[in-house]
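Before we proceed, please read the two lines closing this message. Report back on whether the structure tokens fit the sequence:
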Amino acid sequence: MTTTLVYAVDDAGASALEQRLRGELPPDAEWRRVDHARFAVKAAGANLVCYRSGKVVLQGAGAEEFAARYLRELAAAAPRDDAAMPFEVPTIGADEAGKGDYFGPLVVAAVYAEPAQRAELAAMGVADSKTLSDQRMFPMAERIERTCDCEVRELPPPDYNDRWRADPNVNHVLADLHADAIASLLRRHPDAEVVVDKFGDERLIADRLQQRLGRPPRRLVQVPRAEGHLAVGAASVVARVHFVEGFQRCEEESGTDLHKGAGAPVDAAAARAFAIGGRQLLARIAKLHFKNSQRLAGLVP
């Protein structure tokens, strides 16, 4: 089973950790760029991402061995949380992608998997999509969708902006997408347990599932870092790939290079897109309520 370990570091600790790992890890270690991360590296059967927030996430079959060998000081000095979750019953896992991205759609994926598929999902390298490169996830998502029963709900920017005007609460939008995808799977797999990465009041999804199904699910679990469950990790990968595909469609429509996330490079891309097609183009490729829109002179969502 994939293990997830979580630590916390300050700025000095993150710099020291990166310097030490670059000196100690084997030459074939794969250093990668990850959104919102100081650094990321894959080595010794594990993926490590050090986020700018100070959160360090270590995942993979070799996570425990990696931690014991390379993170002894970090483990002693910082809190640790093992986010791995038991996988003992048929489970529907759900996760989203695009929530924090100005450009591209908002996507929710739900994946039904059985305990007998645990080894296969682990062998694929299924994990929280934030720890994996997009290039690696494309073939992984294709295999997950062939192997497991999946449902995907996607709101491209024009539909997202319409929804936002009707109800300016992203958690309500997310809950609707989650409930739609999960309910479709529950109609085919009524006895499945449901595991969701918690993003708001637990009643948001529970009430919507009750409305759609006329009954509550067998069991609904909503916890932070639910990607430690392989079914949720699989949903995270599928959602991310569908988001990237939608993002690429937005790039094609805009006629310029866009950028993921919502930071300064996104502001520059938004200015280019606005110069090309004004507010009408942005409304087709971006989530207009983000502050990136407000930073463009003359544009009010």
In short: Confidence is low (pLDDT under 50) at residues 78-83. The radius of gyration is 20 Å.
